[in-house]
Amino acid sequence: MTQVPLIHILFVSTALFFIGMYGLFTRRNMIMMLMSVELILNSVNINFVAFNKYLYPEKLEGIFFTLFIIAIAAAEAAVAIAIIINLYRNLRSIDVEAADEMKF
Amino acid sequence: MPNAAYLIIVLVPLLPLLGFVILGLFGRKVVKNYSGGLGTALVFLSTCIAMWVGYDYFSTGAGPDGAYHAFKVLNIHWLSFGPGFSIDMDLLVDPISVMMVVIVSFISLMVHIFSLGYMKGEQRYGTYYAYLGLFTFSMLGLVLSANIFEMYIFWELVGCSSYLLIGFYYQRPSAVAAAKKAFVVTRFADLGFLIGILILSFQTQTLGFGELIQLLGPGGQSLSDSLSLPGNHGLFLGFPIVSWGLALIFVGGAGKSALFPLHVWLPDAMEGPTPVSALIHAATMVVAGVYLVARLFPLYAADPAVLHIVLYVGAFSALLAAIIACTQTDIKRVLAYSTMSQIGYMMFALGTGSGGNASGYTASMFHLFTHAFFKALLFLCAGVIIHRVHSNEMKDMGGLRKQLPLTHICFLIACLAISGIPPFSGFFSKEEILSAAWQTNKFVYGLGLFTSGLTAFYMFRLYFSVFWRRAPGHGDPHPGTTPLSMKLPLVILAICTVFTGFIPFSHFITSDGRPGETPGLGPNVVPPILIALLGIGIAARLYYKESSRPGRAAKAVQGLYTFARNKFYIDEIYLFITKKIIFNGIGRPAAWIDKNIVDGLMNGLAALTARISAAIKGAQSGKVQDYAWFFFIGIAGLTVLFIYIYT
Amino acid sequence: MSASAVIFYILSAFILVTGLLAVTSGNIFRSAIWLLFSLTGVAGLYFWLDLQFIAAVQIVVYVGGIVVLIIFSIFLTQGSGKQLPSPHRRRAVFSALAVCLGFALTCVMLRQQPFTRVISFRQDVLTADMGVDVIGAQLLSTTRHGYVLPFEVISILLLAAMIGCIVIAIKTKPGDK
User: Fold this and answer.
1) ω into residue B95 within 30 of 0, thus cis?
2) SS3 A20
């Protein structure tokens, strides 16, 4: 821990963030989009703990944020799955392009 | 008498207006059978008030110097364009306006009574009386106007009412076309009128007649200079600007009064019911132009160039109309051309008023006065004849003197009056006109003299063809009686025709308001009487009995006869100009530009918008990921913007 | 290059590679497994950062809960065996471009930050005790640095999420509605 500069950790988390974003843009499957969102949330978690460890080691706020994000991510994943299942019942497919009723 | 005493004159135009409103709203269903009575009663009241005011004004209205002054009654400040310049609605009480009010209301009353019988059984009876009320209101408003723009408003109203009345039998396409023609020709002339109004009011910053005359008339230039107004300064193409204004106003007047070359609407306007022709196209509307020039007479008298235009246009119209009338076979057309001719007389009488000699003014107004009576009488008699014979053509008539005795007498009286035979009224007024012409312009005097001979000829041609040519009872019998409502106006008008000549007109109406001398009857009355008798004699010889003499006479002047018969092809010239030149040269290109360029531009813009929208509607794909992508790009853009560019 | 740095670089490579495979794999089940590995890698990173509690929570909740939930839903929607349709070429290119742009922008901004408080090489400052009991005590304390209020709110949120899921996913009987 003493030898890795903060910047490197931030690079990793940024890269993970953008990998998740790429998945969000390109995957045609709703569940895949959900997985990409989990990646994004994880990258944010890494950021928080890194800042906590490197910049404010005497405090615990970063940990708490991480904890809360994990909890909320779990709730959000559950709700998202419920919605996907509901949509699947109506559209008979989990292709996200099947839900395009708002098109012109 | 103070102004307030003449305030009652406000009722004179308002009562027919009330008639119009009531009959217009309810004339179809509720009061249909009483429309005639209601309209007539209101106009009767108007006439009584008008006569009372006239009597009061002329007997006691003279000022301390013996002159009749103009009073402004009822000043309503209406549209204000700036300090001191506004269009007001006010009424002017003045010798000629009082005279005109009396004439208009009286003739309108006669026509209302006559129509009770003539239009009986007509389906749109209520509407007819409503229109008559509207017309009477408009004409009375016109003559009572105190400023030129108010007169223009009523001028247009009169035009509108005449359109409605000419086109009254709207199921007939010829009537509709005639109404349109009247409206379009007079509207075209009114353009000149409006430009003239604008010119004059610009030079003087006022619209009232009194002020215009004061500022632009003789001696007005110093007053204009002191008020720092343009006045009569400035030239346009070599002529003073005010002359242009006056000439354009005269164009407007010429259109309404059917002078050459804007006369083409008047014969066609005979498509309307005959009482309408009596009211509008004989006695009242067509003299509006003469009235206008008389109103602005001091300005015209001060401008010799424009006065010459007035003189020659009037004289030429009189002659042209008389020539054409000699060849027409429709009784109403003959009377229409006769009206045009007489108005030409009135106009050139005004045109002689130069060099301080204003006897032409009095003569013109006197002729207007007497002409109203005998022309209305002629038209109403024609109405009776047409009512019996059910046709307008002279060839269907003849020998009617036994079947229509009263009409016969009245028609004869009117013909004698119009030909200028003493002691009927027409003689006196024509005498005054011709003597005014003699004093200023001998050539025009000669024209007038010749025209009066022609007048006598064609009027008696008409008289003999209708009442004498055949033996009574020969041909189709025309059963039926003339109702009293149609006979009464004839009698009244005949009495007026006989006696109005004796009114000493120059006591009351002169160009400066001061009572003048009645011109004496000297030896210069003889030539007109002689020439009239000559005309009557020729007409009698040709038309007293059915013969081939008219045919032979026509053959002798074949070319001229054909020309005159076809009204000198003036209508055809107009049609040619409009169809070939204006439509093809201006109308079609303008339409092309409008359709392809203006519309095309709009349509092109719309099509462009549609194409752009079709191109970008793909962005609204309904796919969440596309939206997320755009969202992210937006955020990145904003980040760059705010962090790097705006710091 | 000490051992901890090497471990860090290996871990981060693992995380990124499995993450990349998760978003580009053709089979949905395989994607889920790659995601599982990636999340485990993140837990490993937490361990490396000396945050045992968070790492444990990560494994228990994320890996053991969420990924399992995702796999269940894959089964429920019967998509596990099939090959996923690959994305449109245009979308892949544009997304890659946008992502690279974003990454570059973020890196530039990160570079410019001085991070003056970084004390990775200062041993004199006491680091906080990060034991579970300390975390728990502060989580539930009501003092100025206590997090009891967010804690309660999260509880309600979880309750709402639970009820919401049930309501959304409930099958309406054929006779109703």
Assistant:
1) no
2) helix
Please report, rounded to a whole number, the percentage of residues in chain C having pLDDT higher than 70.
86
Decide if B268 contacts B178 (C-beta within 8 A): yes
The encoded tokens of residue B599 equal 């519309």
Give Cα B372 to chain centroid, integer Å. 13
Average pLDDT over residues A22-39: 90
B239 membership: H or E segment, kind and range: strand B239-240
State whether B618 and A99 contact (CB < 8 Å): no
Q: What is the DSSP letter of B412?
A: H
> For chain C, what's the residue count?
177
Q: What is the pTM of this model?
A: 0.70
Residue carrying structure tokens 């400066």? B512
Residues in chain B within 8 Å Cβ distance of C105: 636, 639-640
Nearest CA in chain C to B631: C98
- C81: three-class secondary structure by DSSP: coil
Residue pointed to by tokens 């359709």: B595
In chain B, % of residues over pLDDT 70: 92
Which residues of chain B are modeled with pLDDT < 70? 1-5, 30-32, 61-68, 84, 231-232, 354-357, 471-479, 511-522, 647
Q: Which two tokens stand for residue B552?
A: 């032979």
3-state secondary structure of B262: coil
Joined together, the tokens standing for residue B507 give 């006591």
Q: Is B358 exposed, middle or buried (0-12, 13-18, 19+ CB in 10 A)?
A: buried
Structure tokens at C129: 């005790």
For every residue of C41-63, DSSP letters joined together read: HHHHHHHHTT-HHHHHHIIIIII
Quick count: other Cβ atoms within 10 Å of Cβ B241? 19
> Structure tokens of A22?
């790429």
pLDDT of residue B515: 67
Chain C residues lying within 8 Å of B629, measured CB to CB = 91, 94-95, 98
CA gyration radius for chain C?
A: 22
CB B87 within 8 A of CB B145: no
Beta-bridge partners for B89 = B76
Q: What is the mean pLDDT of each run of 10 residues along chain C (177 residues)?
A: 87 95 89 94 92 92 93 79 76 91 92 73 55 85 85 94 90 64
**pLDDT of the residue at B479:** 66
Q: Are B291 and B144 in contact (CB under 8 A)?
A: no
